[in-house]
Amino acid sequence: MEGRSSNRPVRLGSFRAKFILVVGGAVLFDLLVSGGLALWNVQRLSRDATLEVGQGLEAASQEYVRTYADSTAAQVSLLLRQVHNDVSALAGVLQAQIDDPERNTEVGAAVSRTSPGSVSLSYDQNGKWAQNAPGAASVVSVWGYLLEQDHKPKPDVETDIQTSAVLDLVAPSLLQHGSSKLQMYYIGPKERPIFRTAPYTDQAQTFDRLYPGHNEADFWDFFFPGLYESWQGWARDSKTRPVADDITQTAPYTDAITGKLIVSFFHPLWTADRKDVAGTAGADITLDQLAQIVENVKVAQSGFGFLAMSDGNVVAINGTGEKTLGLSSASDTGGTGVTGLQRSLKRSSQPAIASLALDREQGIQHLSLQQDGHEVPYIVIVKKLPATNLWSTGPVRQEAMSLGVVVPEREIDASLYAAQAKISDATNRIVIYQILAILMSLLVVTIAVFAASKRITSGISALADAAKRIQAKDYSVRVAIASKDEVGQAGEAFNRMAEQISYHTENLEQLVEERTAQIEDAKEEISTLNAQLQRENRRLGTELAVAERIQLMVLPLHQELEAFQTLEIAAYMRPAEEVGGDYYDVLTSGSRLKIGIGDVTGHGLESGVLMLMVQSVARALHEAGNTDAVKFLTDLNSALFKNIVRTKIDKHLTLAFLDYDGKEMVLSGQHEEVVVVRANGEIELIDTMDLGIPIGLEADISSFVKTHAIAFEKGDIILLHTDGVTEAENDDGELFGMERLCREARRLKDQSADKVVSEIVAALMLFIGAHKIHDDITLLAVRHR
After folding, report:
1. What confidence tens digit (pLDDT) does each residue in 366-382 have?
2. Where are the annotated coiled coils located (predicted)?
3. Is the pLDDT reported for residue 588 higher than 50?
């Protein structure tokens, strides 16, 4: 009865119950109020922080896009300005010659004496034009209507030929040291339009091939209709220039000589009295130079740029951007001698792009574009470049190209969403911690109140004195029980405790002996378990050794590698553990040869078992006459998938095969990149990611398997490897890598297959040094004799 009475619930009328109700209620109310206020403040702080961070990140992201567009526009403008400066420099030299006829004649005569190849012409009977021979610094072409009946240039044309040779002195330096230009040239006035270009090209011959009839037509009207007349208008009234600059650029067109899309920059030359046109100085740049700046635009992950004329024709954009904006390209001769590029925003399949305004800057624009049947929001900013004089066809007009930057909103706002998510997560954690703190406080307060109520009783002193005597090892002490309330129950409990302490103290030696015996029994049991564990380890080691032996036994024999007279085959495999997960095999059947390589996930016994399954199934299929590469992989996967399901091995493998019929190699399956070393030392890397999927993941992989034909000529080498080669580490954590593998393969391109494998493995082991090998290493070389 005394043992049970100490665990009775608190009675409502007791002092302890009153103490608990008053003190505990007050503390509980305080905790709930303060905790509720703290939670409310945390939630409010989270909302305010999310709003402020969101506004700041959105403004920063948009400012970043604006700054990026400004810097890219400045790069394009700088490139154009550099070309302008170079053309102006050439035009300045030629104009100075025109303004000083006596010096012009002297310079022309001097060049004629020192470089006769620049002015000595030969008549072409087929083309009916005259042109200087190769070897000169520039080529000068004189059209048929500028020649006499004896095929010699007319006197005034002969003078232009000699005086224009000053181009040989100036153009090479400008081509070498100025901005990157395709060519620089001089074209004579409309009545004598000789064409001198540096560097030398087969100029007239190319014109004959691409522009039939040009030799019988006026040069300026045939190639650039309206351009010369515009310049003559400028000579009469300079205010008629659309832009206050002599430089005139063309819209992009196809160059007759190189076949590239180019932009030409002309600087008209004036007569000494400045009343008429005396020809032009010019330079060409490829559209690649403009496109490179624009196509290198990369904002966020998939943002891109474009460069467009004021009429919406896009002259520079990368392939991803062209598809996103719904553009299509077409050539447009426009009835002129040059072919332009037409890729207009106005013909875009995206309505939002077709209506995009380029005539003014509008800051950040938000557009929705169709992608895979969904509306995807984008941010677009358009920057106008400085205005220039432009000829397309007809009179020269003012042109101000526009640079656009297009970015998906989801990417530019990615940091905003991430910040909001982190704030939300932090808020949730704080709320949870606050609730836990409140609960913990309640628990602590409850324990404290109960403890205090127990201590604040009338019998506390008696219990304290008795406790001191117990501490002094007087285990005979007993508390006098004066009442039957809580204090009395505590006294009874104390007396029972004192009795138990006395009993255990008196019987301590016996208890120590019993515990010692128990410990000895436990030590004997542990020794027995250790012996069993050692026997089990020896058994497992034996099994692994057997598995390793079996794995090595199924590798191709030396005579199998030499079965084909036209091929040298060498291989090397080293498992990271006793049993590896790499696979390679060479299967022959008549005139057919199949070489396989694979890598099971992980290494160890299970990986080795799966590798043996692959070897067995592959040989069975090959011996059964399965010659179709796609069906071979599909059937092999089907058999392995069923075995994996049956054995519950959580493994799969990358696997690729080379089929050789004596002429070419056919590659199938997904594995590491295949390295092809051509006889001339050229390296080709063949990606296998699109030729299949890992074996053992799906029951049917027929829709994923594809083939790739590899031309295999005499002296060529094919390297197959697992990732244990390229991902091998040295002591500094550096990877061996594909670049180092290719460099070693190129160095050994003239060696035998055995030498290639042994030298690469030696280089690999030297690279690894004392570092631990973490993955299986397999390397296989096939050389065409």
Report:
1. 888 888 888 899 888 88
2. 505-550
3. yes
Long-range contacts of 365-372 (CB under 8 A, 24+ apart): 366/409, 369/324, 369/325, 369/326, 370/326, 371/324
Question: Which residues, including other chains, have CB under 8 Å from residue 200's CB and lie 6 or more apart?
Answer: 134, 135, 136, 137, 138, 139
Averaged pLDDT, 81-87: 89
Neighbours of 631 (CB within 10 A): 13
Which percentage of the chain shows pLDDT scores above 70? 85
Summarize the confidence of residues 421-429 as an average pLDDT: 75
Element (H, E) at 306: strand 304-308
Is 722 or 210 the better-scoring residue by pLDDT? 722
**Rounded average pLDDT over 436-443:** 79
Closest among 772, 782, 734 to 574, alpha carbons compared = 772
What values do phi and psi take at 777, rounded to 5? -120, 125
H or E element at residue 755: helix 753-768
Contact 65, 407 (CB under 8 A): yes
3-state helix, strand, coil in the chain (%, to 5): 50, 20, 30
Ramachandran area for residue 289 (φ above 0: left; ψ -120 to 50: alpha; else beta): alpha
Q: C-alpha angle with apex 657: 652 to 660, nearest 5 degrees?
A: 170
Cα 488 vs. chain centroid, distance in angstroms? 80
Distance of alpha carbon 599 from the chain centroid: 25
Q: Residue 603: which of 635, 575, 630, 628 has the closest Cα?
A: 575
Mean pLDDT value of segment 161-181: 86
In this prediction, residue 390 carries a pLDDT of 93
Strands 183-187, 277-286: pairing kind: antiparallel
The tokens describing 261, both together, are 């899309």
Tokens of 10: 């608190």
Pair 189, 161: CB distance under 8 Å = no
How high is the pLDDT of residue 57? 59
pLDDT at position 6 is: 45
- The strand pair at 248-250 and 253-254 is best described as unpaired
pLDDT of amino acid 91: 92
In terms of C-beta density within 10 A (0-12 exposed, 13-18 middle, 19 or more buried), how is residue 732 classed? Answer: exposed
706, 629 Cβ separation under 8 angstroms = no
How is residue 421 written in tokens?
A: 């998510």
Length of the chain, in residues: 785
pLDDT at site 3: 39
CA–CA dist 469, 176 (Å, integer):
107
Distance CA 160, CA 186 (A): 10
Find the mean pLDDT for residues 614-624.
91
Give the Cα separation of 655 and 582 in Å (integer).
Answer: 10
pLDDT (average), residues 18-22: 70
By DSSP bridging, strand 388-391 and strand 248-250 are parallel
List all residues 6 or more positions away from 580 whose beta carbon is below 8 Å from its beta carbon. Answer: 551, 573, 574, 603, 607, 608, 611, 776
Residue 445, pLDDT score: 72
Spatial CB neighbours of 600, under 8 Å, sequence gap ≥ 6: 581, 582, 583, 607, 608, 610, 611, 614, 651, 652, 653
Q: CA dist 707 to 280, 305, 522, 659, 667, Å?
A: 56, 36, 65, 10, 5
Beta pairing class for 402-408 and 707-711: unpaired
The C-alpha atoms of residue 120 and residue 103 are separated, in whole angstroms, by 21
What element of type H or E holds 573?
strand 567-574
The distance in angstroms from the start CA to the end CA of the chain is: 102
Task: Tell me the β-bridge partners of 307.
Answer: 316, 403
One-letter amino acid of 85 = N
Can you tell me the distance from the alpha carbon of 400 to that of 302, in angstroms, rounded to the nearest whole number?
27
pTM summary value? 0.48
